[in-house]
Specification:
Length: 293
């Protein structure tokens, strides 16, 4: 008996909707899968199985949206290797040799680098579980960036099973870390928590909480959070609708390198949304062209 027939005979039985959603997932029809799982959750809100499946579907759908959770174009192994050498002032020989690496840097950074090496297969076999072990060693010494990387591995499910609860636990730990020593990883975690609340991945969808996390990330310099926060103000999601605030956040994001913010800022100027006069003028049109890409 197929899933649709089961739903017809027992319309209040959550398993029928869950099984149909599994078909949509196999076909990568994320929108239909989400709608069907929403119904299953409504019929059985206590089921972690359904909630995790719904989070997975929303995560996959976010990867093809304008507001993606993680970078759809991750860095190559070679790029990661060069970045590690640049950030930590290492030669490739020092990065390759564990003894030389240990002599070059404090333990907190050695463990973090080893986490990257196992995550990306740099001079060692790729192994996400070992990457998590080394990231945890670094995180236990207070490295928020390591906490963020652990959260990403659990979220993405690369070499590990998707575990949204575990991902959020580590993102929260990173996001709430003190900024007195090193800010790296903190705005990234705050931003991704905003995106998770926006999509309802691992948490209930909540635009207000998304805005709260975006604001924290913007205070720590996140240009992508500024763009996303501007979009919330533009649409009036999670709070008041304010074209003026939207424009201000788009401008912050654009001036700090966010491509999405540049496009949104240009559109605001072209439509005179959030500007002082709210009337389309040549001045606003010219200003918009500066950011139009």
């Amino acid at each position: 008996m197929d899933a649709e027939k089961v739903m017809e005979l027992w319309p209040s039985w959550w398993k029928g909707y869950y099984r149909l959603a599994r078909v949509y997932i196999f076909q990568e029809e994320w929108s239909e899968a989400e709608k069907t799982l929403d119904t299953a959750v409504f019929l059985n809100s206590e089921s972690k199985l359904i909630r995790d499946e719904l989070s997975y579907v929303r995560y996959k759908a976010s990867l093809i949206s304008d507001n993606f959770v993680t970078d759809p174009f991750p860095e190559s192994t070679e790029m990661v290797k060069k970045e590690l050498c640049k950030v930590y002032d290492l030669s490739e020989e020092e990065l390759k040799d564990p003894e030389k690496l240990a002599q070059s840097l404090p333990e907190i950074f050695v463990n973090f680098i080893k986490g990257h090496q196992f995550q990306h297969g740099i001079y060692v076999p790729e192994d996400s579980k070992k990457a998590v072990e080394f990231y945890k060693n670094s995180a236990n010494l207070g490295n928020a960036e390591a906490m963020f990387e652990i959260g990403k591995l659990y979220l993405e499910g690369k070499g590990l099973k998707h575990d949204f609860d575990e991902a959020i636990k580590w993102f929260l730990q990173a996001a709430n870390s003190p900024t007195t020593q090193n800010i790296d990883g903190i705005p990234d975690a705050q931003h991704i928590l905003g995106v998770l609340y926006f999509h309802g991945i691992g948490v209930n969808k909540n635009y207000r909480k998304a805005a709260e996390w975006y604001k924290k990330a913007v205070q720590n310099g996140s240009e992508e959070s500024a763009n996303n926060l501007g979009d919330l103000y533009l649409q009036g999601l999670g709070g008041e609708q304010s074209y003026m605030k939207a424009l201000c956040y788009f401008k912050f994001g654009a001036e700090n390198g966010s491509t999405g913010a540049m496009i949104n800022l240009a559109n605001c100027y072209f439509m005179a949304e959030g500007t002082e006069s709210n009337e389309i003028t040549q001045e606003y049109f010219d200003e918009g062209q500066l950011f139009d890409i």
